[in-house]
Structures are given as C-alpha cells and as structure tokens.
C-alpha cells in the first residue's frame, strides 16, 4: 500500500495489448488535481483513500444489479481504477465540507458529499468506464464496505452513451473479404517465394571487410532477388501501399505492378499478407482480438468432423482456457500460409501471428501483439484507387467481425443462435442473442431473407415437380395443372412459375424440412407433426404426412439410406428387425417407381417378407405398377 504506482504481474493479464505495462499499471498520483503537492498532508490522505477504494474493488464480491459478482479481472480492475481516479481528481476540486463519521481515517471524503450534478460532472470524462465503475461502487456501499459514496442507487442518466458496434455492411464485407482472399490465394505464394529469396541472399556472408565493397555486394544481392523467380500472378487486381521503386528513388506509394517491386516492397507485402490472414480467420469464426493473436503456430487440427483452430480464450475465464474454433476449408489455406510466413519471420517461435519488428523488439512484442483491424483495409485499394477503409461506414473495428459473423449466420442458418453460442464460446445464450440482435434492422431482414428463400425453394420445386414424390406431390402437380389450364399455357414461363411458387409458399412460408424435402402445410391446416394449425414442427416431420413434398433429388438420399437400412436389418434380430423393416418401408413410400425398382432386389423382398407393400406402388392415377416383383408380398 505504500507504493503510489501499482503494476500487476504480466502473468495476470491476457494476451495481446493487455500485456503492455500501461495496461497493467495504476498511478494513484494522478488523483491529485493540478497544483496539489504530493507531499502535503491532504494529498497523502487523498492518495491513501483512493488506494483503499481500489483494494476494495480488487478483493470484494458484491451484489451487482440482481446478481452476485466476484472481483473483476485484473485488466478490468486496472481500467476501472483509471476511470475512478479521473473522477476523484475532478471531485477533489469541489469545495470541501465538514466530513461526518467515516470508517476511513484518511481525511475528507472524495465522493460522499457530492450532489447529483457534481457527481455527474466528475464522471462525465469517461462515460463507458463510468458505467462499469458506478454499479460496483453502489454495491460496495450497499454491502457496508465503503462509506465514501453518496447512495447505493446512483444512476447517472446517459452515462453509458457508447456506440454499440454494428456488423459491417454487406458491400464492404464482399469487397474487403474478396480482396483478402485474393491477396492470400493469388499474390501470397509469390510474396513468400520472393521474400524467402531476399532473406536467403541477405544471410549470405560478405566476402570483404571494406564497408563500401560490402555495401555494393549487398546491393547486388538485392538486385538479383528476382532472377529465376516465376511470377504466377503478374497482374495486380488491387493496389497496396508499400515501399516501391520510382524514377526518383524508393518511397512509399501504391503498388500497381511487379515492375515497381524492390526488396523493401516484399516485406511490406508480407505484412499485408499477414493482415489478410487476420481478416480471413476473423470472418471465418469471429475470434476476439486477444484470442486471435494468441493462436499457437500448430493450432490447425484436421479432424473427421472438419478443420479446427485450437487456441485459448480469456474473456470468460479467470485464466486462459483452451478451446476449438471450427473454420471453413477456405480459411485452412490461409492458416497454413500464415504458418509458413511466421516461420520465415520468427523461426522456431510459438505464435501463429508474429510481429515484424526486428531482434529484441520482436521478442518483446510476442506477448503483446495486437492487430489493428483497419490495417489491411488502410493499405489496400481497388484498381480505381478507392481505399477499402474509406468504403466502410464507421470504424473498421475488430469487434465488428464478430457482429458480422453473427448477422450472416442468423440470415443463413437454421438454429443460428445455438451454432454461434458454440462458435463464440459464450456461457449465456443471452450474450449470443445480444450479438444477433445488435443490428436493429436484422429481424426485418431475416424475415425478408426467409420469405425470399422460401420463394426460391418453392419455385425450384415447381420446375422439377414432374420428378418429385411424397404424399404432397399429387396436390402440387394438380395446382400446376389448374394454373396452366386457367392461363392457357402449355409450358410455365418464369413469371408463371413465380406466381405458382407464391401460391405454394403462401407468400414465403414454405418450410425446408431437410435437404430436398419440403413442408407445404398452410397456417390454417393441421398436420401429424403438431396436430394443430399454425407453423409446422419440422423436427417431428413424418414421412407419411400428406403435406410432405420430396424433390427428385431425394431419390438418391433414399437409395443410400435404404442400403444402410438393409445392412442394419441383416445384423439385427428380434424387435430391432421390425424397426429396420419400418425404416426400409418408409424409404420406399415417397416414390412408387423407386419402390418398384427396389423391390426387384432380393434383399428388400426378404426384409419385407409377409408385409403388404402394394400401397407403395400406387401411382397418382390409382394404377398399381406392374409388379411381378411383388411375389408373395401381395
């Protein structure tokens, strides 16, 4: 307690920028207003009092809102103290009053005597930090652990007036994501080959002690770097801000062709390449910045269920906690390329992403590396000279990647909240829903996308209705026939298909049960899935439901499933054989022609021995398909 500056051990902080000394240090001398002398009695009392408040925030479990909360994480505690110290410095400038009884022996109170307006003025300097600090000070007062606070229900209106990060706009994501993928897939291999050669040439020994001759030899190495190198991507689709060769020397500019490339250019391109990998991984699985920079170099895991990135999470854990992030195959190549780049820059290192500083500077950066999300978009422009950052509405911030992943998943995936709950590593489903719903227009957009997707699914079903099956197929074919008769068309055009699809989907309400299987139940119809009107319960869809429409492509699904069912039947005995018989019969139900074909197989006939299967072969016309294959089953 005697020290006026407290610095937390770096082991207590997470990865990335939290390792910086400034993020681990609390300077209590900053509580003194301008003109106060450090050695004065009043100054020492104010410093000791604010230290006591800091110690209480670091150690005490309190009731915060309606939930018990333990002490904050060390990095959060440092940030809280920075804000409380700023507010205290402002509060100490309010004229002193005669203090009442206090459990703290250190001089006048700092906050207790302030009226609402004075307290608001003290905490206005940092609205976001104050919104975190004030509830904790309320809780300390309520618990009887602090008396230098006006009330236990202090609430400063609009104190938390921060911007909620929104997802990136679709156009910006499409353009910047494409630029990152192009950089990684097209330009990246050339950059790594050239940069590797440069580093090899620079590492060759200089066969002279003469400084001028050594300089000439190094220059010769630099000139020879491109000899024999085959450029696989000679045309640059985007421009990159790097050191380039001009007639008046080397200077920073926008690279437009390989003719302008010099050795320093390759190092700049390598840095942009790493930033493109950052973009790809961020858009693939939305890790937090600290999680991203802490990925180990051997983080990639290729499993039977798909590729994973194995790293650590810090947000919801008192210490680092290992976890896996699923990533798409498109991101695997970027991770492998980043591993090559990292090994070139920091041989034998343990991190996937590395600093481009030299020597000891790189080593000191390993534990506090932090990506600026806007670095790639700042240094990349379109062919017509538009810088990507300038095309983004608002700041290019790392947290917006997570919001973007949440938005795109919500628009494109059924059960998105459960999927994102796992991908983001949340502990509370409400956190995931908050991400999804952070965009106020998302719900309307989800409804629009859902309706448009339903219309596309219905239109596709209309186009392929002749080969479709399932109990609903006859009704859909009848709908198409009635429309053609009323419109005097011999073949449905695109407009007519759209009209019939609108009728079938009830203006965008058709449900996709699973791949190639649709539910055509209207809102005023009941079905076996839920036995009432309203939306269907697709999780309880039954193969014999009159509302079930199976597209022609479902034949192959049934064919594969039938093979698996036959294998299961042959291995089973007793009641399990009856269960497998039901599975086999169910796969024959949607398509009478497929059933007729399958019943030619002796294995199918043996499995269905003694079961009447004639209903499986009835066409819409009522005709039973010619079935010498029925044998003893009819």
Can you walk me through this structure?
By secondary structure, the chain is mainly α. It is built from 21 helices and 13 strands. It has a three-stranded antiparallel sheet with strand order 6-5-10. A three-stranded antiparallel sheet has the order 7-8-9. It has a three-stranded antiparallel sheet with strand order 11-12-13, with no helix packed on it. α5 packs across α7 and α12 packs parallel to α15. The radius of gyration is 34 Å and the shape is extended. The C terminus is likely disordered. Keywords: DNA recombination. InterPro entries: DNA_brk_join_enz, Integrase-like_cat_sf. This is Tyr recombinase domain-containing protein.
Keywords:
13 strands; 634 residues; Integrase-like_cat_sf; 9% strand; DNA recombination; three-stranded antiparallel β-sheet; Tyr recombinase domain-containing protein; DNA binding; DNA_brk_join_enz
Architecture blueprint of SSEs:
Blueprint (H helix, E strand, L loop, with lengths): L4 E3 L17 E3 L13 H19 L2 E3 L2 E3 L4 H18 L24 H8 L3 H16 L27 H34 L7 H13 L15 E8 L2 E7 L7 H23 L3 H5 L6 E4 L2 E8 L7 E6 L2 H17 L14 H6 L9 H4 L1 E2 L17 H14 L3 H8 L5 H8 L5 H22 L9 H15 L6 H12 L5 E4 L2 E3 L28 E3 L3 H18 L3 H14 L3 H7 L3 H6 L27
Antiparallel strand pairs: 1-2, 3-4, 5-6, 5-10, 7-8, 8-9, 11-12, 12-13
The helix count comes to 21
Question: If strands are numbered along the chain, what order do they take across the biggest sheet?
Answer: 6-5-10
> In this structure, how is the largest beta sheet organized?
3 strands, antiparallel
**Regions with pLDDT < 50 over 5+ consecutive residues?**
363-367, 620-624, 627-634
SSE-based structural type: mainly alpha
Q: Tell me, briefly, the overall form.
A: extended
Distance between the termini: 93 Å
> Which percent range describes the beta-strand content?
5-15%
How big is the Rg? Answer: 34 Å
Helix content: 40-55%
How many structural units, i.e. domains? 4
Average pLDDT taken over every residue: 79
- Topology, number of strands: 13
